[in-house]
Amino acid sequence: MMRETVLLLAGLGAVLVTASIVAAILTARAPDPSSPTLVNLNQRIKAWWVMVAIIAIAFFFGKDGMTVLFALISFAALREFVTLTHTRRSDHWVLLAMFAVIIPIQYWLVWTAWYGLFTIFVPVYCFLLMPAVTALQGDTERFLERVAAQQWAVMLSVYCVSHVPALLTLQVPGFEGRMMLLIAFLIITVQGSDVLQYVFGKLFGRHRVAPLVSPSKTWEGLVGGIGAASLLGGAISFLTPFGPVQAALVAFLICLMGFLGGLVASAIKRDQGVKDWGHLIEGHGGMLDRADSIVFAAPVFFHIVRYFWTV
Amino acid sequence: MPGFRQTGLKLMRMATSAGLSGLAWAITGVRPIWFGSRPSDRQRIYFANHASHGDFILLAACLEPRHRARTRAVAAADYWGKSRLRRFIAEDMLSSVLIHRVWTDPSQNPITAMLDVLDRGESLLIFPEGTRNMTDEPLLKFRSGLYNLAVARPEVELVPCWLENISRVLPKGHFLPVPLLCRVIFGPPVAVLPGEDRRAFLDRAHAALLALRPRRASDRR
Fold this sequence. Notes:
The complex is a heterodimer of chains A (311) and B (221).
Chain A: H1 2-29, H2 36-60, H3 62-84, H4 92-111, H5 115-118, H6 121-136, H7 143-166, H8 180-204, H9 219-235, H10 244-272, H11 287-309
Helix pairs in contact in A: 1-2, 2-3, 3-4, 3-7, 4-6, 4-7, 6-7, 7-11, 8-9, 8-10, 8-11, 9-10, 10-11
Chain B: H1 2-28, E1 31-34, E2 44-48, H2 55-61, H3 65-69, E3 71-76, H4 77-80, H5 84-93, E4 97-99, H6 110-119, E5 123-126, H7 145-152, E6 157-163, H8 166-169, E7 183-186, H9 198-210, H10 217-220
Parallel strand pairs in B: 1-7, 2-5, 2-6, 3-4, 3-5
Antiparallel strand pairs in B: 6-7
Helix pairs in contact in B: 1-2, 6-7
C-alpha cells in the first residue's frame, strides 16, 4: 500500500501544481484578471490544495482519521441543510438529537463495522422515532414538511456520507489492509468528474440538461466530464481490486450518481431560493456544494463493492 | 503586584475572546455581512437584536480583533452582577459594562456608565430591546438608551447589526444550542436628524435594524 500511497500523493500533487500553473498563466494573460470566473477558478484551486491536504492527513491516521473526518463532513453538511429548511421551536429536541446523537451513533456503528445496524439505524429507527418525538411536542403546523425535511437532512448528510468510511469495514479477498485506496478511488473519480464536468462545460457547454434546475449543467459538460472521469477511473485501477475495464465501468456508475446528486442538490437550493449551501469552502460554496456528488455516489459504490467483490 | 495582575487579566481577556470567537465559529460558522457599512476604526455604537446570552459573542466574533478589543458589550447588572462568578465572567473575562436597568441612585444611571466608556474612546455594543426577546415578534420595541447616547455623543456612529437565526439556534426556554449557520448583517449607520424627537428616532432605528432581516423562501408559504 506504501507504493500506491506515494504514487497517489505524487499524482495529486502533480495535478494541483499543473492546475495552479495553468490558472496563473490564464490570469496573467487575461484582459481582465479580476473577472468573476478567473477569481472563482483561483479560489477553487486554492481550496483544492487545502481539501487534498486535509484528506491526506486523515488518510495518514487510517480508519480513525477517516471516520472522524467524515463525521465532521456530516456535521457541516447537516448544519447547512437544516439551516435552509423551515424549523419551529418545537423541533428543537429533534434537531439537537440529529447533531448530538445520530451523527455519533451512526459513525460509531461504522467504526465498529456493525453492518447489520449501521445500514438500518437511520432508515428504520431514526425515521420512525424522529417524527414520533416531533408529534409528542404537539405542534402539527406544517408537520409533514418539517418531518420530511429532517429525515432527508439526516439521510443525505449523515447516512449517505457515512458510507465512505464504511468502505473500510469491507473484506475483499486479496485486498486486505488496502481499503483506504478504495476511498481514494471514490473521491478522485467522483470529484474528478465534477471538475471535468466544470471544465468541459466551460469550454464546450451549449445545451443545458435541466435549465430550470441548474443553468451550469450542460450535456457537453456531462458527457465529456463523466466520459473522461470513467477513463480516469480505468487508469487508476491499480488502486483497486477491479480490472481496468471494471474500474472504468464502476467509475462511470458512481460519476453518474454524482451528477444526479448535484442535480438534486441544485433543485433543493432553487426551491429554497439560495445559490449556495453555505460559505465554508472559498470559491466552492458550502460543504454540500462540494460533497453533493459524493453523497449520492458513496452508498452505491459501497454496495457495488460489497455485492461483487466481498465474500 | 498590580502590574502582573493587569497583564494577566489582559492576556486572559485576549485568550477568552479569541477562544469564544473560535467556539462561536465552530458551532454557527458565523460570518459578517457588511451591507451599507464597513469595518472601521471609527468609534461606534453597534446595536443588535437580542435572543440569547451568546449574542454578543457572535457579534464580537464578526469584528476584526483590534476592533473587538475596544468594543464593550453592555449587560444588565441585575443578571450578570448577581453572583461573583457571573460578575467575573461578565466584567473580567468578557470586559462587558454592567448597567442597572432599574435605578434610583444617580450613581447607577446607566447612561453615565455607558458615556464613561465612550469617553475612554471605546466602542459599545448594546441591545436596545433591553431584554432577551422571548416572543414571536422579530424585534421588540426599543428603550430610550440608544437615543440618549446618540444625542449626547453625536460624533459616534450608530451601526445596526442583525443577528440572523439566533432564535432558531437557541429558542425560548432551551439552553442547548442547535448548530445552525448564523450571519451578522451590519447595516448603514443611522443618526438623529435635526429636530427629531425620541420616539421618532427610536422607531426609525428599529425599522433600520428590522430592514436587515433576510427573508427566507421557506418562511414565505
